[in-house]
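On to my pick:
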Amino acid sequence: MVNEMVKRGEISPSQAKTMVNNWMTHWISKGQSKDKEWNEQAKARFQDQMKELGFVSREEYEKLEARIERLENLHGR
């Protein structure tokens, strides 16, 4: 399409190059954004599945570990 526009004299070769570069930048950026979105969705689904199976997150584990340590210290263990 861009080559045809250059052939018809509607745009210069440098304008065509700029146009294609802009499109490529836009589509690459859009692709990266979509990839990040899909990765975040996949991670959320995985975490939900792990919770359904009864697994706890590292944060939950560390909170429980700290709580147990405080209770043990409180009771002299």
Observations:
- The first helix runs from residue 2 to 7.
- Helices lie at 2-7, 13-52, 58-74.
- The mean pLDDT is 93.
